[in-house]
Amino acid sequence: MTTLQIAEEVAAALAENRPVVALESTLLSHGLPAPRNLAVAARLEKVVREVGAVPATIAVLDGVPRIGLTSAELDRVCSDDMLKLSLRDLGAAYALGRSGATTVASTTALAHQAGIRVFATGGLGGVHRGARETWDVSADLDVVATTPVLIVCSGVKSILDMGATLEVLETRSVPVVGYQTSRFPAFYRRESEFSVPWSVDNASQAAAVFAAGERGMLLVNPIPAAFEMDSALHDRLLAEGLQKLVDQDVRGKDVSPVLLEHFHTASAGVSLDANEELVVNNASVAAAVAVELFQ
Ligand code: PSU
Ligand code: MN
């Protein structure tokens, strides 16, 4: 098996039992435009540090799985043409010496392999609308069900079939826990029509639930109210984006990036601000939970 290359700071924290938070790179290279993505990457690492944990952004560079990146490497992830690597793609990327950003699925697996227990992202992948015909269900669901890592996210992107995604999570015995909310968040919106089975009031409770359950868990954290997207704008962008997929015959791993890009370009940056703020907020909560886990 290919050996992980763990940044010195991250390795030291893991060895000394200090809190570490994993961050993914697909949301940077395929979910946000350059150069905004680099500013977001830096902000994510900064907020994790401020709360008292060590950030570990994960990617594959020249065939090597990297846990924790230097600022030059972060720059590369944000500006170079990166492959989108899910868990199925890691072997090929390693063997063929390729570079790519890791999705929630592959980041979770690599974080676990490195001994990191907490991971922050924007939205989990899930069951796509139309999955009854396309079978398009993100590998993220499978990995969270089988890997004991706590993932902090703002629910799943509203571009997905949320009800079906929640059903799969229930079937796969994934605990979905609301962070100061009883509703399942809808990424750009604070609430969806769905409720969550459990809620916690603070990071300490979240850490206790995770530690007691000893399995992959979703801590769902709504977007900060000031950055929530207007619902009419949101619904219009979603309808347009879904039509674009049909018109351009977009499939598979390109679906999420194309939809996100439509949101960003057609909302004059409103969705970009929303996306940035929700991920930063998730990184902050993840760091707080990581700190609690090591108390
Ligand atoms: N969250 C974001 N932006 C993103 C993603 C999540 O705010 O771009 C990415 C994650 O990396 C997630 C992926 O794993 O979208 C899901 O892709 P797919 O639907 O192809 O499995
Ligand atoms: Mn897919």
TrEMBL record:
Active site residues per record: E24 (proton donor), K157 (nucleophile)
Reaction catalyzed: D-ribose 5-phosphate + uracil = psi-UMP + H2O
EC number: 4.2.1.70
MF (Gene Ontology): hydrolase activity, acting on glycosyl bonds
Top enzyme category: lyase
Chain sites annotated for binding substrate: K84, V104, S138, A139, D140
UniProt-listed Pfam families: Indigoidine_A
Cofactor: Mn(2+)
Record text on cofactor binding: Binds 1 Mn(2+) ion per subunit.
Binding residue positions for Mn(2+): D136
Keywords: Glycosidase, Hydrolase, Lyase, Manganese, Metal-binding
The family this protein is said to belong to: Belongs to the pseudouridine-5'-phosphate glycosidase family.
Subunit field text: Homotrimer.
Function: Catalyzes the reversible cleavage of pseudouridine 5'-phosphate (PsiMP) to ribose 5-phosphate and uracil. Functions biologically in the cleavage direction, as part of a pseudouridine degradation pathway.
Protein name, as recorded: Pseudouridine-5'-phosphate glycosidase
Organism: Lentzea roselyniae
Gene name per UniProt: psuG
